[in-house]
Amino acid sequence: MLDKPVETGGKKIFETPLYPYRQSPDQKPDAKAHHPVVIIGAGPIGLTAAIDLAQMDIPVVVLDENDKVSWGSRAICFAKRPLEILDRLGCGDPMVDKGVVWNVGKVFFDDRQVYDFNLLPEKGHKRPAFINLQQYYFELYLVERVFELQRQGKPIELRGGNKLVSVKEKDNGVNLSIDTPDGPYRMDCDWLIACDGAGSPVRAMMGLDFVGRVFEDNFLIADVVMDADFPTERWFWFDPPFNRGQSALLHKQPDGVWRIDLQLGWNIDKEKEKQPENVIPRLKAMLGDDVKFELEWVSIYTFQCRRMEKFRHGHVIFAGDAAHQVSPFGARGANSGVQDTDNLCWKLKLVMDGLAPDSLLESYDVERIHGADENIMNSSRSTDFITPKSEISRIFRDAALDLSERYDFARPLVNSGRLSVPCVYDGSPLNGPDLLTDAPARTRPGAPCPDAPLGKDFLLGRLGGKFQLLAIDTEVPDRIEDGGIAAEALRISAADDPSGDLAARYLGAAKSAVYLLRPDQHVAARWPSYDEAAVKAALRTATGRA
Questions:
Q1: Which residues contact 11 (CB under 8 A, 6 or more apart)?
Q2: Which of 288, 297, 290 is nearest to 259 (CA)?
Q3: Strand pairing partners for 211?
Q4: SS3 content of the chain, % helix, strand, coil (to 5)
Q5: Does residue 470 contact residue 464 with C-beta atoms inside 8 Å?
Q6: Which of 31, 127, 161, 322 has its CA at a distance of 20 to 30 angstroms from the CA of residue 419?
Q7: Edge-to-edge strand ranges of the sheet holding 523-527
Q8: Rounded distance, CA 415 to CA 393, Å?
Q9: Segment (H or E) for 63
Q10: d(CA 149, CA 67)
Q11: pLDDT by residue (tens digit) across 53-63?
Q12: pLDDT tens, residue by residue, 67-88
């Protein structure tokens, strides 16, 4: 629980211990500490996993050597799909209410705008394409949700000042050694979820590493406080007058904070470039001498596009940056990590309850490695376009930019960071049949459910963290069960949405449809009408029991 209210704005957020160290009963000399699930890391990914598990009544303990939210130049762009997941976790509203909502981006080449784009041109969605929100706010609202769940009696514990020092796998579980201000203690757990970031101590303790590419370009990140009249849009420059031969990015955040990225090149003195006397002239060249600003944070980063070969290692499962890393172009880091936990937690619940085989967790590897590879591919392509590695590549890039100002066909060739979109699990072993003829491809098996209006509500708000039968203009039973796993019916009519968005996204040319939806709101299978045997078979497939 918070000892006192946290003031938003300024340094109060990240100076306040939100979950200070307190001795736990596990530290008593005669304690035989055992927990069903332990999560290492109280960042965005660890907290979302913990909240999801606690909402399913799975006891979970989160360990972190810190006791407060993160500070520094971390994630700020949160995409539509993670926001929809956060709605299911009960903390989407404060994120969006505080965040800076945006859908439009602009691309500049030299001193001119070449085109703009809208990431959510269609209507009928509850959430925007993106919000910008400092990671310390993101973590704050997740921690507040943890405390809210504790007040409701949910089995979730957040331990600050607890540093993991060793991991030892054993039969059907994991043994942990933890250090605290009061000395070390040990605990066992059935499952360990490593959400401990890019430098993951768990990964190092287990002797595991990444495969992939490491990039040599250096980028300056500056979070500055200023009163500016730039619109709430994503602005990206190629070869601007204020940073010749390089790139630049401008994003608005809450509280008058702006994120500025400036490409610096390869062989630089990083410590020298971070000094205010070198940063401020760069920013003035970009913003103009008359714009007043204060530096809130400055750092220089390089990046990697790499991942672990496997995310699951026995009873240890990796998620977020601990499992995969990408460049920041495209906002794929935290967004993909939230989707990791969304994919994992319902599967872990079924396995722990004995309703699905342990092999169901192998589909976490299959699906989220597919997602990581997609992110790495897009992120690598963005980086290669932004930072050409040869003169021929630069000539091609500049020609594409010149043509994009006048010709639509050239705009898909421009890559200023393909922005995060949800992964479609094509080819997943959990996918069932697709027998809905002439239906939209966007709602095929493996795809996440797109939102759609339902009267004054929205479809995704009616979908919970469970299997469901979505019946559109056709009849299905209230509930169907197979092997102790049930799918509950949600009956709706395309007439419930006069705009036609629901029909366009889920029916296409079909007159009716039945969708089997997974707890993570991905489509498992679809048919034109209800068939009990077919639905039960698809339910077995979707839970790894086929």
A1: none
A2: 297
A3: 307
A4: 30, 30, 40
A5: no
A6: 322
A7: 479-482, 485-492, 468-472, 513-517, 523-527
A8: 13
A9: strand 60-63
A10: 19
A11: 999 999 999 99
A12: 998 876 678 889 999 999 999 9
DSSP assignment letter at 264: E
Work out the burial of residue 152: count CB atoms within 10 Å of its CB; fewer than 13 is exposed, 13-18 middle, 19 or more buried.
Answer: exposed
pTM, whole model, 2 decimals?
0.93
CATH topology of domain 12-98+129-211+306-371: FAD/NAD(P)-binding domain (3.50.50)
Query: CA-to-CA distance for 75 and 79, rounded, in angstroms?
Result: 11
| Domains of the chain by residue range | 12-98+129-211+306-371, 216-302, 441-542
Helix axes 80-88, 333-352, angle to 10 degrees: 40
Q: CATH number of the domain at 441-542, please? A: 3.40.30.120
Which of 22, 19, 18, 20 shows the shortest CA–CA distance to 8? 18
Q: C-alpha 121: how far from its chain's center?
A: 22
Average pLDDT in the chain: 91
Fold of the 216-302 domain:
Alpha-Beta Plaits (3.30.70)
Q: β-pairing, 185-194 with 34-40? A: parallel
- pLDDT tens digits, one per residue of 271-288: 899 899 999 999 999 998
Number of alpha carbons in the 13 Å side-chain half-sphere of residue 423: 28
pLDDT at 5: 39
- Is residue 38 within a helix (H) or strand (E), and if so which, with residue range? strand 34-40
The Cα 145–Cα 127 span in angstroms is 20
User: Angle CA(251)–CA(256)–CA(257) in degrees, nearest 5?
Assistant: 50
pLDDT at 186: 96
Alpha-carbon distance values, 176 to 34, 153, 310, 322, 419 (Å): 10, 26, 21, 18, 38
Query: How far is residue 520's CA from residue 340's CA, in Å, rounded to a whole number?
Result: 10
Region of 283 please: left (phi>0), alpha (psi -120 to 50) or beta: alpha
List residues bridging with 523 in a β-sheet: 517
